[in-house]
Design a protein that fits this description.
alpha/beta; 2 domains; Rossmann fold; 6-stranded mixed β-sheet
Amino acid sequence: METAIVLDRATKRFGELTAVAALSLEIGRGATVALLGANGAGKSTTVAMLMGLLAPDAGTVSVGGRAPRQAVVEGRIAAMLQDSGLMPGVTAAELVGLARRMYPAPLRVEEALELAGLREVARRRVERMSGGQVQRLKFALVAVAGVDTMLLDEPTRALDVQGRREFWAAMRNCAAAGRTIVFATHYLDEVEENAERVVVLARGRIAADGTPARIREAGGRAVVRFRLPEQAPLPPLPGEVTREHGWATIRTGAPDEVVRRLAACDVDWSDLRVTPPSLDDSFLALTGSAETATAVPEEAHVR
């Protein structure tokens, strides 16, 4: 797969604070990748280095084989940053039309508005748009560039549930066209629904890297639950076992083994339920220590 983004031991410091620490990462062209981390994990600093807004203090960063600033000048990358305002007094179509003139091979204004789900409000003035519409308009300003690589830094911050749903519907339209999309977020549901690969950052380092399913497995434990008579004994089971109100609950990294042992025993259990690890639990487990990096094996590392 052709490489769109490469960071090779990229490091960025602000005084005594190391925001990004020797970060090495490759992202293939056409991938949709989430940078997941809590506030202060290094997501925005990484995006700023990819845009050439910040230069690494050590290591290198390249986009499409070029230095980030050169990639921006050539119209190969565009970004939706956290803090950006919009020109008042103009319509959505007028603003997207202005942005279109800044790129060498842009989309048509109508196409960008369609991708962002704004065709019906193209003539609406910016200051009269809802919060969700404003975010989608910011996305349209990126989409109209027609670039190979798009960066979205916390794109749904401060949006309500409906606004977030509308925004990601617009983003998926663009991803379907084969563009490389990298988005930074701390919303776990956005990762599950919109990313094919997740890079978990903690204190400027990679804590885990893989598919959403692999990230769940890497840091979390499954839950096996079933009904059990109060005095009924249990065979030895791998994991943390609790019993309450006629239910037995096992939190375990080996749910298949738990089920096999239950099936082989004579205990009168019923109503078996197996719940896979949650991304929430895995995220907390993986980011609990910045010194411990978890590598997700095999096919999880998409290049």
